[in-house]
Known about the structure:
Strand order of the largest sheet: 13-19-18-17-16-15-14
Number of domains: 2
Strand content: 25-35%
CATH superfamily of the largest domain: Naphthalene 1,2-dioxygenase Alpha Subunit, Chain A, domain 1
Number of strands: 20
Structural class: alpha+beta
CATH architecture of the largest domain: Alpha-Beta Complex
Helix content: 25-40%
CATH class of the largest domain: Alpha Beta
Amino acid sequence: xxxxxxxxxxxxxxxxxxxxxxxxxxxxxxxxxxxxxxxxxxxxxxxxxxxxxxxxxxxxxxxxxxxxxxxxxxxxxxxxxxxxxxxxxxxxxxxxxxxxxxxxxxxxxxxxxxxxxxxxxxxxxxxxxxxxxxxxxxxxxxxxxxxxxxxxxxxxxxxxxxxxxxxxxxxxxxxxxxxxxxxxxxxxxxxxxxxxxxxxxxxxxxxxxxxxxxxxxxxxxxxxxxxxxxxxxxxxxxxxxxxxxxxxxxxxxxxxxxxxxxxxxxxxxxxxxxxxxxxxxxxxxxxxxxxxxxxxxxxxxxxxxxxxxxxxxxxxxxxxxxxxxxxxxxxxxxxxxxxxxxxxxxxxxxxxxxxxxxxxxxxxxxxxxxxxxxxxxxxxxxxxxxxxxxxxxxx
Length: 395
């Protein structure tokens, strides 16, 4: 079913290519400029978006083996994701049950146990408390009641999602609106983590707007990869999640082949965005490389952090490592020195009161859909959250 959907989308690309057209929204959409810097609005987004929805924290391939773990922090929430010795993936607050100290330092690896650096209380890969220093002196303690505090976690399409609250308001499949089946065609579960780097950027929406925007590619990126890119964009949606493609001449090759021979590398091209904070883009580099950009709001409305995780279809080797260094340096330059440099300056001008609204043209339907859904989400109560996503999916 999902492959047929990819073929349908590819055919639509061919039609637009031959006609020289692109998707067009009904009208230009105006977004209040204050939405990008207003502190009250930003606080609502933190609570009603990022603390209510599942967030991508990493790749399944990094957590394949028993004992594999990832320690990270999102919105001041310390997280520990661990593949237990029983094969089950779990997520926890990265906080010792004794006095709350951060248990594992930020990073990833494989460990049978995690020992608190404060008082040496020890937990196994399932989060169970298995060791208490000087237990007799501490006093009677039911260790089964003092394991690490769990958070909901889910795996789909080679990605790992974690909720920043103990009880989820919407399950992962309802949240994905059928998009998970489409993401499976990227083959991320079979990739290898080849590198990771972090960038600092503007307000999270300024940054996210760019991931949905092909209109700027040949202009802003004229000195990097822009000259080969089209300004035209086609948008396909699964609830709030969107895939962006362009009607480029590469799709003409498909017309010469039977549909069952259309290569997946052509069918799954484009930029795949996962609401509210992820963009996945593919590159060819001795195999295929996926750059998974995880965008997190910063400590202030005007700041954000982006973690770029690079997933490679080819197993790591010295030769591949050199290729990846070059690819990562190039992408850091493109996003940091072109996209986010422009975004930070854009944000300063809006904060100064230069404009009352920002515009999304009829050719920028992806940005229009993002902002409309975001507005709707901020007006939705907890009890109605699942219904919102079901309605967005047409269920």
